[in-house]
From TrEMBL:
The keyword Nuclease does not apply. PANTHER family: MINDIN1, SPONDIN. This is Spondin 2a, extracellular matrix protein. Its main location: secreted. SUPFAM superfamilies: TSP-1 type 1 repeat.
Length: 334
């Protein structure tokens, strides 16, 4: 039998080992919360400013002037971690994304975010008012926490079949530091649920639905597409997001959601995108006018589909004539 002194000594040694391990654990780097990689000690307050750059100089093709004119929907933003995605390029659109991208309804989109919040995968949800023009600003204040350092957002392009701009899982935290300012240019995306080619296309569901894809100057590769500019390597930014960290004031009680601070937006110089003239195919040749094969001529025509803009290629001739040939002449009856 072991003496009580030996037993006590053994327990003390085990306790000492546990204490040493705990000391090393606390002395090491802080573990990120929920696998986010963010070890910041506290939350961060940001001002998010959405700016629309959709204008007839940069996007002259089929630019919507009425019924309705070019404009932006309300902005929907969610802070979250890696266990939630609001939307993802290359993946199918969720019912919420489809509903928002097609008709601008946020009910399903916000319901999915609320379910994720119950599982601690998402945090705060933010919305701003829509912008009634292609050029304009909207803003909101956001409070980001280390558990949910990622930001995703969507804004519908109006009018459009199912097109939107957005951010997917932008990380505002690097290690133990919150980023001070982030600016991102935005380009159009296709939700893959409607097959319309133009801004004002009627509803034409895509069956089966396709994945979310970015719209470029040459994709979809079809002249009827409203963003088809084959002379451009890439589209100019149609919108942008600027996220600026703020110092939270304890005595500030009023929210600055949907408010633009004075002189916070610098004037934007828009590039002029050249738009080439587009014409239809030639019509069939008309009947001969004049003596057949002796000075007689025939005509064919085509019409303008799209007029040029911003020093684009001018329209070619819309009428063409040629001499009659014997096989196009009607033989006289004997």
């Amino acid at each position: 039998m072991m003496s009580s002194e030996h037993l006590a000594c053994g327990w003390l040694q085990k306790l000492l080992v546990v204490l040493v391990k705990l000391c090393f654990a606390f002395a090491g780097p802080q573990r990120p919360l929920n696998g986010t990689g963010c070890t910041a000690r506290g939350p961060a307050s940001y001002i998010l400013v959405f700016t629309g750059h959709w204008n007839p100089q940069s996007f002259p093709k089929q630019y919507p002037l009425f019924r309705p004119p070019a404009q932006w929907s309300k902005l929907v933003a969610v802070s979250h971690n890696h266990h939630f995605r609001l939307w993802e390029e290359g993946s199918p659109a969720s019912p919420g994304v489809q509903s928002f991208a097609e008709v601008g309804v946020t009910v399903e989109l916000m319901k999915a975010a609320k379910e994720a919040r119950k599982k601690r995968a998402a945090g705060a949800m933010h919305r701003t008012a829509g912008i009634p023009n292609g050029i304009g600003h909207s803003s909101t204040e956001m409070l980001m926490v280390p558990r949910n350092p990622l930001l995703s957002l969507m804004v519908k392009i109006i009018p459009s079949p199912d097109w939107f701009v957005g951010l997917d899982s932008l990380n505002l935290c690097e290690g133990n530091q919150w980023k001070q300012e982030v600016t991102v240019d935005l380009h159009p995306f296709d939700a893959g649920t409607d097959s319309g080619f133009t801004f004002s296309s009627p509803n034409f569901p895509t069956s089966p639905p396709e994945n979310i894809t970015q719209i470029t100057s040459q994709m979809p590769n079809h002249p009827a597409n409203s963003f088809y500019y084959p002379r451009l390597k890439e589209l100019p930014p149609i919108a942008s997001i600027r996220i600026t960290r703020q110092r939270r004031s304890l005595d500030r009680q009023t929210s600055i959601s949907n408010h633009i601070l004075p002189n916070s937006i610098s004037p934007q110089r828009f590039s002029a995108t050249p738009l080439d003239c587009e014409v239809s195919l030639w019509s069939s040749w008309g009947l001969c006018l004049g003596p057949c094969s002796r000075g007689g001529v025939r005509h064919r025509t085509r019409y303008i589909l799209l007029r040029p803009a911003n020093a684009g290629s001018p329209c070619p001739e819309l009428e063409e004539q040629a001499e009659c040939v014997p096989h196009s002449c009607m033989k006289k009856r004997q």
